[in-house]
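User: tokens in, sequence out, please.
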């Protein structure tokens, strides 16, 4: 039994932590070793143990050197490997499998569901007495209905929109049905929204959203409540469950049962998200989007992906599932876990959030390491806009630069809005003010001159506010942008000349049709709308289209490919049925003219 200080007074017990190198598995191994009364076998799919410099791995390295721990390579699809790892153990903690390819359903099924069957059979053959399965509270969530203080009377609905939840529910059912067969006692724990150091799903997903400017939105009214569970509390609950199954007084109320595990402190989902993001230096979500609008967008995206046959992103936390979590209330009653397995959180919500933020400091907004993180892989549109490496403009005396991509993709809302507002004012000044272009330019120069001259008379301090001086370098144009501009103009000129030369030969009908269509399209645009309207549309397009394209890159690429194939087929049809006869007619006319020319000359002589 467990003593009052949380330590075990019994003889050391041999246990196996299956998938012990995953998120929750590492935390459980670390806690078992700190308690001291466990001999721990860490079993995972990696062929060899790779230790890092973290505190938990240092503790594991010391335990392995003192024979209090060992590592076993186990593929849960191979029963013989499982039995070798379970031999002589009395407790098995069955944790989540990590590194699964979400797009490979067969492999996921074999690892999660068939793996659970193999683990159960191996436990029975090796006479393992206790099996605790780490499930999830998601198995009772259908993605559309709120859950208020849900308890263990909630049943699985078996209509999951998320594949992983479906497979986890099947594995949990198999573990619970195996209870009290061949002396094996089983139970399952259902933690809700696990977070903490080492998390590879929730926190990295939030940072990725913030990095691409998507974390500014609150989906819905922001009032939905959720339960969160710090990873060390989940580990503690597993040990409590193992001890309860070993107690003759309470195992009847534990064996074959599932228990919800939380921090016992539900809070608003978006408040929790804000705490994490603000702790890492990112802006908290402030813009509210109606739930109906959000769902229509995601249903459209989901339909588009399905219609185009696009594969889902290989990420353990999909955007669609995140929307489900972020727009519904999900709170759970842990009374049963407190009563029957003696669970209560050992780390408070505040301490857990603080520890999590500290562990992810390398992903903080101002961290130099964040620029080299995999999360910062540039999108296609970011590369198209220069990616912050080529297309840059000087913005202050320290020669700091701001990428065009950051402006058009709204990385910093204030900065992008400032540029957008400045361009709108310039557009109004030159095109909507009613003056000629030359008059507008002259008035603007006059206004700038007056402002700069007046600014020069201002004192360095006005009522305690410092007035910075404008250095002369601010009016200088650096050499690189000037060279790039000239090179661009030269490239466009050479491109135009090359096309004119090709047309002058009279044998490239495809190029002629392309030029003809482009010029005709330009003519239609200028006829239907004025130059002012074209510039206005281009301005709005620049600050919206790139941002939208980055959000739905794969879907729009699929639509573009579909349109491209249709256009290609149409062009092929046009070439075969129209251009070929015309080209043949002109060729025959040229041959006929060539044969008749000598006769005409001879007759004249």
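Assistant: Sequence out:
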């Amino acid at each position: 039994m467990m003593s009052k200080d949380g330590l075990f007074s019994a003889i050391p017990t041999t246990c196996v932590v299956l998938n012990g190198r995953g998120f929750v598995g590492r935390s459980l191994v670390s806690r078992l070793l700190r308690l001291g009364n466990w001999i721990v076998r860490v079993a995972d799919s990696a062929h060899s143990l790779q230790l890092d410099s973290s505190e938990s791995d240092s503790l594991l390295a010391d335990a392995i050197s003192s024979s209090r721990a060992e590592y076993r390579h186990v593929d849960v699809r191979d029963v013989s490997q499982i039995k070798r790892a379970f031999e002589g153990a009395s407790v098995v903690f069955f944790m989540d499998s990590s590194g699964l390819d979400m797009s490979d359903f067969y492999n996921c099924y074999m690892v999660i569901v068939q793996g659970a069957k193999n683990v159960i059979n191996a436990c029975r053959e090796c006479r393992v007495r206790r099996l605790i399965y780490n499930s999830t509270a998601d198995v009772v969530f259908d993605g559309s209905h709120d859950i208020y203080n849900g308890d263990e009377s909630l049943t699985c609905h078996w209509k999951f929109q998320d594949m992983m939840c479906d497979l986890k529910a099947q594995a949990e059912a198999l573990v619970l049905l195996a209870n009290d067969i061949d002396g094996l006692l089983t139970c399952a724990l259902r933690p809700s929204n696990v977070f903490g150091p080492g998390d590879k799903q929730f926190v990295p997903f939030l940072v990725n959203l913030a990095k691409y400017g998507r974390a500014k939105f609150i989906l819905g009214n922001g009032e939905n409540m959720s339960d969160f569970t710090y990873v060390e509390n989940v580990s503690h609950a597993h040990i409590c469950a193992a001890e309860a199954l070993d107690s003759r007084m309470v195992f009847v109320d534990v064996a074959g049962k599932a228990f919800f595990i939380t921090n016992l402190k539900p809070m608003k989902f978006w408040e929790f998200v804000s705490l994490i993001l603000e702790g890492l230096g990112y802006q908290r979500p402030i813009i509210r989007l109606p739930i109906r609008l959000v769902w229509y967008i995601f249903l459209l995206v989901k339909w588009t992906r399905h219609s185009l046959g696009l594969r889902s992103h290989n990420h353990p936390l999909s955007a669609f599932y995140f929307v489900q979590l972020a727009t519904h209330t999900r709170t759970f009653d842990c009374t049963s876990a407190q009563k029957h397995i003696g669970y209560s959180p050992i780390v408070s919500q505040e301490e857990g959030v603080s520890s999590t933020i500290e562990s992810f400091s390398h992903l903080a907004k101002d961290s130099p390491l964040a620029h080299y993180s995999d999360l910062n892989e540039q999108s296609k549109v970011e590369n198209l806009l220069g990616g912050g490496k080529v297309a840059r403009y000087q913005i202050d005396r320290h020669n700091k630069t701001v990428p065009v991509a950051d402006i058009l993709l709204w990385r910093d809302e204030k900065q992008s809005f400032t540029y957008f507002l400045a361009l709108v004012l310039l557009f109004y000044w030159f095109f909507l003010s009613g003056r000629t272009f030359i008059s507008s330019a002259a008035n603007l120069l006059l206004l700038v001159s007056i402002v700069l001259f007046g600014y020069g008379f201002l004192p360095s301090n006005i009522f305690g506010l410092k007035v910075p001086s404008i250095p002369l370098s601010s009016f200088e144009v650096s050499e690189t942008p000037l060279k790039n501009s000239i090179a661009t103009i030269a490239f466009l000129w050479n491109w135009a000349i090359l096309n004119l030369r090709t047309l002058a030969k009279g044998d490239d009908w495809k190029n002629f049709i392309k030029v003809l269509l482009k010029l005709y399209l330009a003519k239609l645009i200028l006829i239907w709308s004025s130059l002012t309207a074209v510039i206005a549309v281009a301005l709005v397009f620049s600050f919206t289209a790139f941002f939208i394209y980055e959000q739905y890159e794969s879907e729009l690429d699929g639509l573009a490919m579909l349109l491209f194939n249709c256009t290609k087929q149409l062009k092929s049809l046009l070439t075969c049925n129209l251009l070929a006869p015309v080209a043949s007619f002109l060729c025959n006319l040229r041959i006929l003219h060539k044969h008749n020319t000598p006769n005409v000359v001879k007759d004249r002589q």
